[in-house]
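Notebook, p. 212. Picked up where the previous page left off. The plan for this session was modest: take the two constructs that came back from the sequencing core last week, fold each one, and keep the raw output in the notebook itself so nobody has to go hunting through shared drives later. Recording the first one now, exactly as returned: residue sequence, then the structure token string.
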Amino acid sequence: MTPGSCVLIGAPVDSGKRRTGCLMGPDAYRVAGLPRAFAELGHDVRDAGNLAPDPSDTPADAPAHLHGLAESIGWTRALMREGHAAMNEGLPVFLGGDHSLSLGAIAGVAAHAAETGRPQFVLWLDAHSDFHTPRTTQSGNLHGTPLAYVTGHGGFDGFPAVTPVPEENICILGLRSVDAAERAVLQGSRIGRHDMREIDETGIARPLSAFLDRVAAAAGALHVSLDVDFLDPAVAPAVGTTVPGGATIREAHLVMEMVCDSGLMTSLDLVELNPFLDERGRTAQVMVDLAASALGRRVFDRPTRAYG
């Protein structure tokens, strides 16, 4: 990736699920050295600080079981606005915060892509498909809804209107936890999806390479969403939604290196880091290292880590 301007947008979103702690994520990334890592790669880094949600009300007919709905709507509005604006400055990097931050982050960058005549693509690195709507989620946790929202599905009363991302422009890598209702909807969609069984059998490079080729052919804008639970919890324990059998460190670095080599990434989010569950900052450091790989760090540049 050619060095350029990066805008760090702290998004201490903690309303998308009931287990708290992700609000500490943005500052954990800073302490783990993310701004310094990007600057050492030659990027011009501006830290915009931490956002706050817009004031919002709960829609009158909202399902009663939804958690943090008004706050999530407020975060979506704020992140949509800030993400859209940051695209005019460089590459926005959203520091989360739970995965509901992608409701606004992707909506904002997709609106910018539409204004510039580019199709928006999304690489979703996650154990979950997050394809519920507020009407279909049984848990009531809105961090499981971003892909339904940004593809234009209904049920998001009170949320801002979006420029829909075509389903075929989305690729999910690392799936290993999808409930029955969500699976049925996902199978009827045009979203590209690759579970860990497929990755075990064919490797992670093949489906990613095919997707990146499609983005390049369309001259598309690429948003990359990296959830901590994409990784195996043995190497990244600081997440409230652990699912065994995730990507290895090498698989994750390969993904980010391939994204970097493609030169296609136009925005990035790092989500679901809960520092309260971490071990001496281990997961925060892994996520910083992966983000650095996406922005140009090579194998020979990687520092040795000591956790003792």
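Okay, moving on. Second construct, recorded in the same format:
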Amino acid sequence: MNESAHCGAPKRLAVLGAAVDLGASQPGTLMGPAALRTAGLLPLLTALGFVVEDHGDLLPTPPIDDADEALPANARQYRQIQGWVRALSARAYTLAQSGAIPIFLGGDHTLSMGSVNGVARHWQQQGRELFLLWLDAHADYNTPATTITGNMHGMSAGFLCGESGLDRLLGDEPRASLDPGRLELFGIRSIDRLEKQLVQSRRISIADMRRIDEFGVGVLMRSFIERVQARNGVLHVSFDVDFLDPELAPGVGTTVPGGATYREAHLVMELLHDAGLVRSVDIVELNPFLDVRGQTARTAIELIGSLFGQQITDRPTPSNAVSREF
């Protein structure tokens, strides 16, 4: 077994795609799972010493025919997204129960409403607290009452922390809401006015790009990791590729200037790997239709490699060959 797998950590990875793009304003994220596989995700993880199980792409459950349910206002594509969230929650719970680390390939960020809920349900039963690291340009803490657009990918974190307005989204699937104190918004640089007020009222920890500029990734990430460790918690990483600067990751529909640099993003992943706390992962909002020759997909794969133990010095580059000559 490669040293990338921490002693005592699960050695199996379970990969599951969810080709959903109903929560976003631009179509295209449904091609994300295929692009991530094509970019080499599975061979990379296998080379790091893990047993990788590819469970293919999930299908949503049929829409719930409930005449008594009043559909929430200002929540676009609610019924269809409900089918995805229900299916993802049930499958995430099963995968977590199997002892593998689930890796969910999206798809837009509504994926997390199901993936995190299912994983959180598993850890509740184990008596462990699940913490959620939200690597994103956006807080995604809207509700139907605060959203400007009605796009449900912007409500994912709020739903997961128990905010009202989407109370029947899971149907008969158990809801395992997180305390807002276990959410860390990291890399944020765009937040709506009412959403900001809600986040502040919940006293949610935010490491926005201003704080990252002032204190650096290392200080802020170590502080968060120490909080998780102090509670004997485990960690779900929800990685939206718009966390990265658009020059590094153009293949997203919601680009915001001033995002994480290549080295900042890799340091986040390297510190998470060193801590050995990560037990589930989302990769969301990759839109291959908007990408430039697969640049965003390849960058995302490299970052997931760092999360699971690949070192920068392991990656051959043209400069390596030159440096060895001198």
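Notes on construct two before I forget. The first strand starts at residue 12 and ends at 18.
Flagging for discussion at group meeting.
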